[in-house]
Structure to design on (130 residues):
């Protein structure tokens, strides 16, 4: 996968994760909510929503409400789990929470599933969540 393709995939994962997080806070999620949450322009979010819909990761109602499909939810939950676990681990190590969240966001996309599972097992043990 080229660098550009990798960054595009990373971006789509961030959008899916954001829709998941917003759906836990809001009764309905719209593109404007995503734009506000990520501090992105409305046109950028519109392009991303179109891509997510074309890949069948989300559906968009007539009213403009965004919903994750089963496949979209699976990806979003995986990214969110990685983000949360890595953030908690970095904070446990003494990293400032904001820095930890930013660093976890970078790490969550690049680590292989095999390495993540090994780290997860270790981190959960360290954090006393095993």
């Amino acid at each position: 996968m080229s660098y550009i393709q990798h960054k595009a995939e990373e971006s789509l994962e961030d959008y899916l994760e954001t829709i998941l997080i917003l759906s836990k806070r809001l009764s309905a999620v719209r593109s404007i909510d995503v734009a506000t949450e990520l501090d992105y322009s409305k046109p950028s979010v519109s392009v991303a929503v179109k891509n997510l819909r074309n890949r069948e990761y989300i559906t968009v109602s007539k009213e403009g409400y965004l919903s994750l499909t089963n496949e979209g939810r699976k990806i979003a939950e995986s990214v969110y789990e990685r983000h949360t676990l890595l953030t908690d681990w970095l904070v446990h190590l003494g990293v400032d929470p904001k820095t930890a969240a930013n660093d976890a966001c970078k790490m969550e996309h690049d680590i292989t599933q095999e390495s993540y599972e090994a780290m997860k097992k270790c981190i959960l043990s360290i954090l006393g969540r095993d």
Q: What stands out?
A: The chain has a mean pLDDT of 92.
